[in-house]
Amino acid sequence: MSDINKVVLAYSGGLDTSIILKWLEDQYQCEIVTFTADIGQGEEVEPARAKAEALGVKEIYIEDLCEEFVRDYVYPMFRANAIYEGEYLLGTSIARPLIAKRMVEIVKETGADAVSHGATGKGNDQVRFELGAYALSPGIEVIAPWRIWDMNSREDLLAYAEKHNIPVEMKRGKQSPYSMDANLLHISYEGGILEDPWNEPDEEMWRWSVSPQNAPDTPLELTLDYVQGDIVAIDGEKMTPAQVLRYLNKVAGAHGVGRLDMVENRYVGMKSRGCYETPGGTVMLKAHRAMESLTLDREVAHLKDDLMARYAKLVYNGYWWSPERQALQTLIDETQQVVNGQVRLKLYKGNIIIIGRQSAENSLFSEAIATFEDDDGAYNQKDAEGFIKLNALRLRIAALSGR
Amino acid sequence: MSDINKVVLAYSGGLDTSIILKWLEDQYQCEIVTFTADIGQGEEVEPARAKAEALGVKEIYIEDLCEEFVRDYVYPMFRANAIYEGEYLLGTSIARPLIAKRMVEIVKETGADAVSHGATGKGNDQVRFELGAYALSPGIEVIAPWRIWDMNSREDLLAYAEKHNIPVEMKRGKQSPYSMDANLLHISYEGGILEDPWNEPDEEMWRWSVSPQNAPDTPLELTLDYVQGDIVAIDGEKMTPAQVLRYLNKVAGAHGVGRLDMVENRYVGMKSRGCYETPGGTVMLKAHRAMESLTLDREVAHLKDDLMARYAKLVYNGYWWSPERQALQTLIDETQQVVNGQVRLKLYKGNIIIIGRQSAENSLFSEAIATFEDDDGAYNQKDAEGFIKLNALRLRIAALSGR
Amino acid sequence: MSDINKVVLAYSGGLDTSIILKWLEDQYQCEIVTFTADIGQGEEVEPARAKAEALGVKEIYIEDLCEEFVRDYVYPMFRANAIYEGEYLLGTSIARPLIAKRMVEIVKETGADAVSHGATGKGNDQVRFELGAYALSPGIEVIAPWRIWDMNSREDLLAYAEKHNIPVEMKRGKQSPYSMDANLLHISYEGGILEDPWNEPDEEMWRWSVSPQNAPDTPLELTLDYVQGDIVAIDGEKMTPAQVLRYLNKVAGAHGVGRLDMVENRYVGMKSRGCYETPGGTVMLKAHRAMESLTLDREVAHLKDDLMARYAKLVYNGYWWSPERQALQTLIDETQQVVNGQVRLKLYKGNIIIIGRQSAENSLFSEAIATFEDDDGAYNQKDAEGFIKLNALRLRIAALSGR
Amino acid sequence: MSDINKVVLAYSGGLDTSIILKWLEDQYQCEIVTFTADIGQGEEVEPARAKAEALGVKEIYIEDLCEEFVRDYVYPMFRANAIYEGEYLLGTSIARPLIAKRMVEIVKETGADAVSHGATGKGNDQVRFELGAYALSPGIEVIAPWRIWDMNSREDLLAYAEKHNIPVEMKRGKQSPYSMDANLLHISYEGGILEDPWNEPDEEMWRWSVSPQNAPDTPLELTLDYVQGDIVAIDGEKMTPAQVLRYLNKVAGAHGVGRLDMVENRYVGMKSRGCYETPGGTVMLKAHRAMESLTLDREVAHLKDDLMARYAKLVYNGYWWSPERQALQTLIDETQQVVNGQVRLKLYKGNIIIIGRQSAENSLFSEAIATFEDDDGAYNQKDAEGFIKLNALRLRIAALSGR
C-alpha cells in the first residue's frame, strides 16, 4: 500500500490502540514499535508491555515522563497564566507536544518511517500531535487510522477485535460513558450526556475531586515558595515539579477544588462541551498571579495579560513547537526572573483563598508610598494634578472642538 | 483666591466631605451645591440633606441613580467580561464616570464654575472623576482639597472640624479601620492591616458576604435569562438591571460568593492591596461567559478576549468617557446581539457551578457535529488531514531548512 | 459522479476557464451558468458572452460590479489603513468576497447546486473564494478543478483543449510569462523569473505605471475631499468611489506611483514572491492617514493601529464574510465619523508628498496649544512635572528595589 | 533654594543652554558640570568646551557617542520595524535614552545631585529624558528650567543674556525659523509656518536631502548584508553601525530619500506638526522588512507586526528604560537570529526599490513549493480542500443557524 516498514504507535494497552496495532500490521505489512508513556494519567503503564508482547510486538518503549512533563511543559505554560476562553487550563493540550517529541525521537532510534495515534478526526488532539511531529521531523509519515478506516462506532471495533483475535482481556470491564483523557495536570470528560450542554453532569463522573459539599469542614493552609515563577517548595519542603503537582492535586482535589464545566471552541471548527478536573493547576494559576502581583512591574503584567490569550490559543491549537510560541515564551520567561517569594493560601470547599504574599528580594509593594496615613513626602499628591491635566488634555481639546 | 463663585461638591454627609464643604467656603468665599447620589452603597442618602442644611447649603441634590448605574455602566462593562489584572471586577472604577457626568450636569443647571470631591491625591478615583469631568466639560475647574491643603491625618481633620464648628454628629461612632467604598456592584476595603500584603484580613472585615464556612449547606440553583448579553430575568421573573444586581448580591453573598483579596497596580504608579466583595458581579461574569460560550463565534470570542484586558484597563484608569472606550464598546455591543438564552448555575459555599446553558435561537453548538458517535456525514474526518497538512507546511519548511 | 445538475462558473472567457467549463460538463453531466464580472480588470467582459455561447452555455451573467466593488469593499478596507505584512495593499484579496457573494446569489437565482472557479490549490484565492461561498451559503458545493484533475501544466491544458474542440481563439496570442490578476485596485504578477526572489523584474512587466524614471518632470498636485473617511471629491469635483479610484490610478500610474515587489506569506503555508501595481490605492492609504492625523483622537488612532494588522490578515486570509471582520469593521466605521476634510498632495516620480491637511469641523490640531511661542496660558507647562513624576513612579520604585 | 550643590547640564553650547547654565548658578548657587555629546547632529561639539570655560565651568564632558547610539539604540529599534503612527521613524525619541543614561553616569562620577536640560514643558523630550533619568537613578533631582522660569519667548531670553553678560558670540547669526533636532538618525523641524498643517514647507527648510526633483537621474544600486537583523556591510564592505548609518544617510539623502511631513500626537496630549529627514533610516526600514520577508516564519512576522505599534509607542513616549520595552526587545531579538542574508535595492529620486533578497542559510522561500509549474508532489493540492472545509466549518454552522 505504501513503502512503510516500521511504525511507532502511541499505545495505551487498551482496546482501541490494540486494534490500531493490528490494523496497521494488516494494512501496511509493517513492524510496529509501541510507545507507552506515564505522564501521570493514574493508570499503570507496565501492563502495556505484556499486551504488546502478546500482540507480537518486538520493540516496546515504556517510559515515565512525569518529571519532564511538568518541568518543561506545565511549568512554562503556567508562567504565562494561560487560560483558554476564560476558563480552560489546557490540561489535554499541554501533554501532546511531549508525546509527539518523544515519538519522533523513537522513530529515529528505531529506524521507523511513520508514527500513528488513536486520536479521532474530529478533535484537537490529532492536530496537536501531528503539528508537533511535522515540526520536529518534517518528512515523517503520520497514520491516523480514525481518519482512514470505515469503523465509526464501538460495535465496529468489537467486531474487528473478535475477527482478528485481539485478546478478550483488552476490553475494559464497565466502559465509562465518557471519553476521558488524563495526565498529571488534569482529567477530562466529553461525550455521553455531556453532549447536551443543558445537562448537568452526574456527581459520579468526577474522579479526582470530591464535590465542595463533601469536602472537609476545616480549611487547609498552604505556603508555596516561588523561584523565577515556578513553585519549588510547599510548606517549606523542597519538591520537584512533578512532586509539586502531585501534592497539589491530592490536597486540592480533597478540598473540592478544580472542577470546570464548559463549552469550548475546537480548532477544527465546532463547539464541544467538556468537563475538567484540574485541582493542582487551579491552585497554581491563582497563586502564580498572586506572586506576580507583588513582583511584576505594572506594564509588564499588562503586556503579559494582553498576550495571554494568544499564548493560550497557540497551546490549545497545537503550536507548542512553533517559533511564535517560542518567541512568546522567551518574553514570558524573561519577565519571571523577579517572580520570587511566598504565597499563602487556604483551600476550603472548592475555594482557593489567597491570604498572603511576600517577596524579600523582589517586592515592588511600597507600604511607605501606598499608605493612607502620612507618608513623610514619599509621594507628592500635588503631582497628581499635572498627571491628570495632561492625560485629560486630548479629551478636553476634543470636547472644545464640539465632540 | 480665584474667581470661583459656586462649587458643586460630591457630598456624602460624612465628616470628610463636611470639612471639605467648610473649607471650600473659607478658601473661595463661594456658594456650595451638594450632590449626594444613591448608587447602592447601602447607606441612606436622605440624612445628607439635613446635614447639608445644617451647614448652610441652599442647593442640595439628592438622587437615586441605582437603575442608571447598573443599566448604563455595569451592564455594558460586563458585556466585555472585563477583569483588571486577572482578578478585579472594577467595582469602584465603574461608579466614577456616572458621578462625574451627573455633577457636570448640575454645574450647568446651577450656574456653578467648579466641582470638588473628597478623593485623595494617591488614588485612582481622583483620576477617574476628573478625566470624566474634563471630557464632558472641558473648561471646568476641579478642586481636589486633599491635593491642596496641609491636613494629612484624621487628627488634623478633627481639629479642623472642632475649630470650624462642624457638628459633632458628623463624626461617625466607631471608625472602621479600613478605607471603604461601596456601590451596588461591590464594597472595597483598603488600608489598616491590609497595608502589609502578608496579613490575612480579619473575618469581621467582610460585610456583604458570609464566609464559605458559614454559608448554607444546601446549594441554591438559579436560572438567568439573557437578552443581547444582559440579564433580564432570574428564575423566570423579569427584573430591571438594578433589581438583578440587588438580587444576585443578596443570594450570592449569602452563599459566600464574591470575595477577593489582591494586590493591584494603581494608575498613579504604586501597588496597593485591596479586598473586595462583589457577589452579584462574580456570578454575572461567570454566567455571561457561559452564555457566550454557546452563542458567540469562536473568533469573535477570541477577539473579545484579546481586547478585554485593554478595555478593563481603560475603565480602571478612568477613561470611560474617552473615544477609545466608546469605539471598543461599539465592537462589544455589536457582538452581543446573539448572546441570548439561559444559563443555569448553582451557588454553594463560595462556588459558582455552571450546570447548563441553552439558546433556542442563537446556539452554535451542534450536537450532530460534536458527537463522538456516528454523525451521518455531518463532518468529514478526512478533511482534517488537509487542514493539518497545510497548517504544518510552514513548520515543515522551516524544519527542512535546518531550524 | 454526484447529484450536481447545474454549476455556476466564474468565467473569464480565457482558455483556462473555458477548459474548466468543458470539464465540468463532462465530469458532472451538468448545465453550466457562466458569471463574468467587470471589476475593473481592464479587459472587456462582453466578449465572454460570445465565447460562452459558442461553448453552448444558455445562462450567461455578465455584470459591471466596479461601483459596488469600490464602495462596499475597497473603501471600507481603506478606512482601516489595511496593509498586509507591512507592504501589501490587498488588491487581490479584496475582490474575492464580492465574486463569492454574487455567485452565491446567482446559484439561488438559477437553481444551481454548485459553484466552480479556476483558482489553483496552492494559492490564497481558492480560500478566499470558498470561505465566502460557505459563509453565505453553508450547504453549497464547491468544485475546484485544479485540486481534482490531473492536469498540471500548460501543455496538459492545450492538449485537453484540442481534444475537446475548445475553439482556438480562446488561446491568447503571446502568453504573459507571469500569472496575473487585476481589478480596479491593482494588478499583480507572480511566477516566471519572479520565482527567484533575488531576480529583479523586467521593466516591461509593469503595465499600469511608468517607472519613476520615465515619469513627468513636473509634479501633479491634488486635493482630496474626505467625508467619514472616504474620498468623495478630487480637486473639488465630486466623484463616485469607482471614479475616484479610476482617476487616481490614472494620474498616480502616470507619475510612477504604486509599484511593489515583495515576498509574502500565503495562508496555505508557503512564501511566494509577488509584484503589484496599486497606483490609486497607494495614494489613498497615505492620504487617509494624513486626514486621520488631524481628526482622530490619539488613542483611537493607536487602537486602530494595534488592530490594523489583524484586520489586514483577515482580509488576506479570506475572512471578509466572517463575524470577526464585521465586528472590527463596526469599530473602524464608528471611528470614521469625524474623518472629514481635505488633504493636499503632490505626485512626483514615484513619490506621494503630503503638503497639507485641514478639517473645518473636525480638526483636533490646536495651534494655540502646539505653538512654540507664548500660548497665553492655554497649556500649563508646570503640569508636565506631575505627569512625568507619576509616570516615573513605578520605574523609580523598581530601581529603588534594586532592579 | 534647595540643597543642590552640583548639576549636570545637557549643554549644546548654544544660547539657550548657556542661559540655563547661568540661571542654574543663580538660582541654586551650585556648580555646573556640562555634558555635550556628539550623536551625529552634524555640528562640531568641541567648540562647546571653550564656551563652557568662558562661562566658568570647571567640569566639562564632551563625548562622541555615535557608535554607541547606533549600535545600542538605533539598531535594536530597527529590528522591531518600529514606526509611530504609521509614518514616524522615531529619530528624536531614540536619542534621549542614551543622553539620560550618560548624564546619570556623570552625576555619579562627579558627585552631583541633579540633572538639567533645555527641553520645554510642552514636548515629548522632557518626558523621554526624565523617565530615563528616574528609571536609572530613582533619587535624582531633575531641573527643567522651561517649566520653572517665567521666560516665554526669544526676547525674554535675549534680555536675560544681556543682563547676565552671556557672551555675544553665543547668539547664532541668522536664526532658523524652525525648532530643529538632529542626530545620526534624523533631523526634525517644527514650529514657524509648520504650525498650520495646511502649509507646505519651503524647499529650503530641508537640510539633509535633495528634493526628488533635484536628485540624480541615475539610480544607485546597493547591496546590504544582514547578520541577525543588523546591517554589517554595504556592497561587500564591512562597516560599523555608525558607519552604515552615515553612509546610508549620505547616499539616500543625495537621492531624495527620507523626507516626511506629518501631524503626530504627542505624549503630553496635543497634536503637533513635524517634518523629518531620515534618509538612512528609511532605507533601513524597508530593507529590513525585505530581509525578514525571506527568513522569518509567517506567524513570527505577524506577532512582530501586532506588537510593533506598541513597541514604537513605548519608544516615542520615553519608556526605553522600562521593563516592558526590555521584555519586548527580548522577544524581538530572539526572532532576529535567522535574519541573515543580503538585500539589493535601488535609490532613485525619493524611491527605494527592493530588487532582490537572498539568504543562503535561512531562507524559508521554497521555489519547489511556490512554483506555478509542476512541483513533483512537493505540495498536495488536495490538502487545500480539507484546510478550507475545516476553516469554514464555524462559518457554515453559523449560517445554518440563521446568521
Automatic annotation (TrEMBL), chains A, B, C, D:
Residues annotated to bind ATP: 10-18, 37, 118
Pathway(s): Amino-acid biosynthesis; L-arginine biosynthesis; L-arginine from L-ornithine and carbamoyl phosphate: step 2/3
GO cellular component, one term: cytoplasm
GO BP annotations listed: argininosuccinate metabolic process; L-arginine biosynthetic process; urea cycle
Keywords linked to the UniProt accession: Amino-acid biosynthesis, Arginine biosynthesis, ATP-binding, Cytoplasm, Ligase, Nucleotide-binding
Binding site residues for L-citrulline: 88, 93, 124, 128, 179, 188, 264, 276
Record-linked InterPro entries: Arginosuc_syn_C (IPR048268), Arginosuc_syn_N (IPR048267), Arginosuc_synth (IPR001518), Arginosuc_synth_CS (IPR018223), Arginosuc_synth_type_1_subfam (IPR023434), AS_cat/multimer_dom_body (IPR024074), Rossmann-like_a/b/a_fold (IPR014729)
CDD domains: ASS
Chain positions recorded as L-aspartate binding sites: 120, 124-125
SUPFAM superfamilies referenced in this protein's UniProt entry, alphabetically: Adenine nucleotide alpha hydrolases-like, Argininosuccinate synthetase, C-terminal domain
Subcellular localization, as worded in the UniProt entry: Cytoplasm
E.C. code: 6.3.4.5
Catalyzed reactions per annotation: L-citrulline + L-aspartate + ATP = 2-(N(omega)-L-arginino)succinate + AMP + diphosphate + H(+)
Molecular function as annotated in GO: argininosuccinate synthase activity; ATP binding
Entry-linked Gene3D superfamilies: Argininosuccinate synthetase, chain A, domain 2, HUPs, Single helix bin
Record-annotated Arginosuccinate synthase-like N-terminal domain positions: 6-167
Residues annotated as domain Arginosuccinate synthase C-terminal: 178-397
Class in the EC hierarchy, top level: ligase
PANTHER family: ARGININOSUCCINATE SYNTHASE
Protein family membership: Belongs to the argininosuccinate synthase family. Type 1 subfamily.
Subunit structure: Homotetramer.
NCBIfam families noted in UniProt: argG, PRK00509.1
HAMAP family xrefs: Arg_succ_synth_type1
Protein name: Argininosuccinate synthase
The species this protein was found in: Candidatus Venteria ishoeyi
